[in-house]
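Q: Could you fold this chain for me?
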Amino acid sequence: MAVLNDEVREQAKKVFSELKNRVKLVDFTQEVECRYCRENRMLAEELASTSDKIDVETFDFVKDKDKARECRVNKIPAMQVVGEKDYGIKFYGLPAGYEFASLMEAIKIVSNGNSGLAPESKEMLKKLSHPAHIQVFVTLTCPYCPQAVRLAHKLAFESELIQADMVESSEFPHLVNKYGVFAVPKVIINESIQFEGTLPEKTFIERMLS
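A: Sure. Below is the predicted structure, expressed as structure tokens.
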């Protein structure tokens, strides 16, 4: 059974007709597939079938542990959006529901080489001097979460010092407990900076720079 229905598939074809450069969806699963690993892999494959600019590469999280380590993937299901290089854009958990739009946007950003950040935001990012790991906890029914996810991924695209993850809360309850996620979106930066809700670009970057 397909993950995408015919209507969504046609919408994806229309959106991806404007892609410029090749994009690779790197999927991590395992031999005995985890909850939603199968759906995550199928989603990547079905999206690739909508555009000749999208490729898929699948790895076994256990058997290909060196590749997982190289890609800094530490849980599954996981999907990376990679272009001419790895921009640190990851989805942990199935990017369905409202987060499907976040995945579409990430593919467009990487393919077209444009984050869409304001010039002021790009200048602010130049002040970043240490690596930043952004985790955005979401639920698939949250209409506000994609805004936070997209911004985090835009920041990762712009700066080699930033890694940005979408983390689907229901699939990683141990992390929900660890970080005390009671409302979404919840953003964790380098384990120490935490806030809930969506923030404007400038405010988000200011929090990260702090």
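A (continued): The chain has one domain: 6-209.
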